[in-house]
Design a protein that fits this description.
Layout: H1 2-5, H2 15-22, H3 27-38, H4 50-70, E1 84-87, E2 90-91, E3 95-96, E4 99-103, H5 121-134, E5 141-145, H6 173-182, E6 185-190, E7 193-194, H7 232-239, H8 257-271, E8 279-282, E9 327-330, H9 337-345, E10 349-352, E11 358-364, H10 377-384, E12 385-387, E13 403-409, E14 422-433, E15 436-446, E16 452-453, E17 460-461, E18 467-473, E19 483-491, E20 494-495, H11 497-504, E21 530-531, E22 534-537, E23 540-542
Parallel strand pairs: 6-8
Antiparallel strand pairs: 1-4, 2-3, 4-5, 6-7, 9-10, 10-22, 11-12, 11-13, 13-18, 14-15, 14-19, 16-17, 19-22, 19-23, 20-21
Helix pairs in contact: 3-7
């Protein structure tokens, strides 16, 4: 892009650059499709691609300067920026293996390693290990996988994967340990759907809350909306190897985070190391340069590559299947790079779907049952238990049962963007029972409350909670079984972003005269009009001493 923008740069007059400048709607195909799908660079890059790599280094320096300008280094600590980039790996028919690479501080490598130069995650880890940690004093980084729901079930395969062909050699303890170190977090929710679980699949059919913000396809190659077959997305889809638009492949179990957590328990048992010990975050991944703009009300759409940039689509700024994205929350001592990065590394993080509830989750062996009533609840929890993202220690006494403190406060919101009351807190447990991986979802605080939302006005009704707190004991615990636990917080139902637009524009599906051009999707059969915003704590794990 930099070469094509700067007139005196070598390669400026290459046909691909001319096409980019004169017919910008084909740029996604010219550069995104050619590089992302085919792992090739245009001739404008010069011999051995060195010209493009040099320009990439220059752009990388500009990013570092921008991050420095945004970082508040004063004692106010009002805003902390990180230097990072997206490692945009995609294999086969648009199977997404993207990772967001985040560096600890301003000590970073001279260049960002792209997917074209590093076809596997192992090579990305080598780059972080060698070019960052070994060769750049003070440097450290992590890589956060995102959109596992669009990975075609490949995100949680071996990190040696370079194509859709899964290597025959099984995972090793070393690979599992390296994955755990370099990818301590994973994204549960973003603009392109949620990745916890999927109630359309038999394994999660009984968990109705797994149906939240689901896409109907397993990868970008079988994406079935947003293009009528005549535009750039059609040709990009063709380049990705897609067939007919009806050739939809729904996601399978291996595309979701809860599957990965259970797979990690098996790895722990078989290899002595768990490569899928992920803490949870959410993010937006929209292309509008407004990270954190995740409210349902006034959602502006994906932006640069979304429907909002197309002519004639002014009223519904995004495709129905997409959403505003979510937020990442870190528990850190202060708002500085070093402190926040340490929180990421130890997984003391939780994910939300865009609202701002406060969620706490601790696990231990001797927490008092009445801890929620104590004015020193947090101090006692930190002194006698471990926080979200950590490993339970050995109990130190026979017949001990783990106890979990889970506490939540509702998003207070603002006058313009009011928060919703809390409905319930659940604990999701997964464990290795003999040779079977099992899971269970339990309501531990709050519960069904008949709260509702009027889809014609978006007015909420029914009871709810400003706060919820409990100490829950796992009476079914067995010290010989590997296990994980995480909390899922659910708010009362509210209007989805798309329905808020429909209501604001006066659309009533029983009155065709109100369905104006651009808002036909308000009355589409697939339109989900209400949602339950939520948050997920990072898990707490238990590993038997014999499995270490």
């Amino acid at each position: 892009m930099k070469i094509c923008r700067e007139e005196n740069t070598q390669g400026y007059n290459h046909p691909a650059c001319i096409g980019h400048r004169e017919l910008s709607q084909i740029s996604q195909l010219l550069f995104g499709g050619y590089g992302l799908s085919m792992k090739r660079r245009w001739g404008l890059c010069g011999e051995d691609n060195q010209h493009c790599l040099d320009q990439a280094k220059s752009a990388w320096e500009m990013m570092q300067e921008a991050a420095e300008q945004a970082y508040d280094r004063s004692e106010d600590c009002q805003f902390t920026s990180f230097i990072g980039y997206e490692w945009t790996a995609t294999v086969g028919r648009g199977n997404n293996l993207h990772h967001n690479v985040i560096f600890k501080n301003d000590q970073v490598p001279d260049y960002p390693l792209s997917w074209i130069e590093s076809p596997t995650q192992v090579q990305l880890w080598d780059y972080l290990e060698q070019t960052c940690v070994d060769d750049t004093p003070g440097c450290d980084g992590i890589a956060i996988p995102h959109n596992s729901n669009l990975s075609g079930g490949l995100q949680f395969e071996t990190a040696r994967l370079a194509t859709t062909q899964i290597p025959e050699q099984p995972d090793t303890a070393e690979e599992a340990a390296r994955r755990s170190h370099w990818t301590p977090l994973i994204e549960m929710m973003q603009h392109k759907g949620s990745s916890e679980c999927d109630s359309r699949l038999p394994v999660w059919a009984d968990d109705t809350f797994c149906g939240f913000e689901k896409l109907g396809y397993a990868n970008f190659g079988t994406k079935n909306t947003g293009d009528d077959g005549s535009g750039v997305l059609f040709w990009l889809k063709t380049l990705l190897g897609g067939g007919e638009f009806s050739d939809i492949q729904p996601p399978g179990e291996a595309s979701f985070v809860r599957y990965a957590l259970k797979k990690g328990l098996r790895q722990q048992r078989e290899l002595g190391s768990n490569g899928y010990k992920y803490g949870f975050i959410s993010s937006t991944d929209t292309h509008i340069a407004a990270p954190g703009l995740a409210m349902e009300k006034n959602h502006p759409g994906h932006g640069g590559a979304g429907m909002g940039s197309r002519e004639g689509v002014a009223l519904m700024p995004d495709e129905l299947e997409f959403n505003p994205g979510g937020l990442a929350v870190l528990y850190a001592e202060e708002n500085t790079r070093e402190s926040l990065f340490a929180a990421m590394r130890r997984r003391e993080a939780y994910a939300t779907t865009g609202t701002r509830p406060t969620l706490r989750f601790f696990g231990g062996w001797q927490m008092p049952e009445n801890l929620c009533e104590s004015s020193t609840m947090l101090e006692q929890a930190y002194s006698s238990a471990v926080p979200m993202g950590a490993e339970l220690p050995e109990p130190g006494m026979p017949n001990a049962m783990p106890r979990f403190l889970v506490s939540a406060a509702a998003d207070a919101g603002t006058v313009a963007y009011p928060g919703s009351a809390l409905q319930r807190i659940q604990i999701v447990k997964g464990w290795y029972d003999g040779d079977q991986l099992r899971e269970q979802v339990l309501d531990v605080a709050g519960g069904d409350n008949n709260a509702a939302v009027d889809i014609n006005t978006c007015e909420q009704s029914g009871p709810g909670h400003a706060q919820l707190c409990t100490v829950w004991e796992d009476s079914a615990f067995k010290p010989s079984q590997e296990a994980f636990y995480y909390a899922r917080l659910l708010e009362n139902p509210s209007c989805r972003w798309s329905q808020q637009i429909c209501v604001a524009q006066g659309v009533r599906c029983d009155d065709p005269s109100t369905i104006v051009h651009g808002l036909e999707s308000c009355c589409a059969a697939e339109h989900v009009k209400t949602i339950q915003e939520r948050a997920w704590s990072s898990p707490i794990w238990y590993t038997p001493a014999t499995a270490n």
